[in-house]
Design goal:
The complex is a heterodimer. Chain A is mainly β. Helices cover 0% and strands 57% of the residues of chain A. Chain A contains no helices and eleven strands. In chain A, β5 and β6 form a beta hairpin. The radius of gyration of chain A is 13 Å and the shape is globular. Chain A starts with a strand and ends with a strand. By secondary structure, chain B is mainly beta. In chain B, strands 2, 4, 5, 9, 10 and 11 form a six-stranded mixed sheet that branches. The radius of gyration of chain B is 14 Å and the shape is globular. The chains are: A mainly beta, B mainly beta. At the A-B interface, loops of A face β5 and β10 of B.
Chain lengths: 113, 114
């Protein structure tokens, strides 16, 4: 039990599909993050939420749409994705906004056909 | 903004040997330098971190050194074991509850051969 749970672990979708990734943290943290992990690239920060308010959108295309209904849950809605969006999407949380340790989930492996 | 370079990208050692991974950063204002370990099929996990007011920190077989003048920091793993095999990421930033996010290196895949 990592404290940060992501579902689904694997997702295959076509370019015209609409799907969502879910993240839940059981740590009582106030900040949550979406990262994209591609081979041979640094972890790319996508979105940051602090007390369920979005504080950062790191120039992410609009085909990725985040949602944070409360401090414990974070979603990433996906629509009309491209094959180059195939990657591991990692959710993380921290006690406070950009302070101290990031706790990562195990990720959702996305394949776009 | 901050830029972090990490070397080597792959590292293979024999069990019992030491492993060293090096990172350089560009923003002299960065003051927090964590290292994360990512095992296959798992998310990254913090293994050790150092802040700019110290030059070295140890935790059992793991140590991190920081040279602020040269803007580089290193991870040292002694007496390596097969379970140390993973991808290791360094990061740099100024996480003081503000907007200074962590910037990660590209990672080093460490393989410890039995």
């Amino acid at each position: 039990e990592t404290g940060v749970t992501q579902t689904p672990r694997h997702l295959v979708m076509g370019m015209t599909n609409k799907k969502s990734l879910k993240c839940e943290q059981h740590l009582g943290h106030n900040a949550m993050y979406w990262y994209k992990q591609s081979a041979k690239k640094p972890l790319e920060l996508m979105f940051v939420y602090n007390f369920k308010e979005q504080t950062e959108n790191n120039s992410v295309p609009s085909r990725f749409s985040p949602e944070c209904p409360n401090s414990s849950h974070l979603f990433l809605h996906l629509h009309t994705l491209q094959p180059e969006d195939s990657a591991l999407y990692l959710c993380a949380s921290s006690q406070h906004f950009w302070t101290g340790e990031l706790f990562f989930g195990e990720g959702s492996r996305l394949t776009v056909l | 903004g901050e830029n972090v370079e990490q070397h080597p990208s792959t590292l293979s050692v024999q069990e019992g040997d030491s492993a060293v991974i090096k990172c350089t950063y560009s923003d002299s204002a960065s003051n927090y330098f964590p290292w994360y370990k990512q095992e296959l099929g798992k998310g990254p996990q913090l293994i050790i971190d150092i802040r700019s007011n110290v030059g070295e920190k140890k935790d059992q077989r793991i140590a991190v050194t920081l040279n602020k003048t040269a803007k580089h920091f290193s991870l040292h793993i002694t007496e390596t074991q097969p379970e140390d095999s993973a991808v290791y990421f360094c990061a740099a930033g100024r996480p003081q509850g503000g907007s200074e996010k962590l910037v990660f290196g590209k990672g080093t895949k460490l393989t410890v051969n039995p």
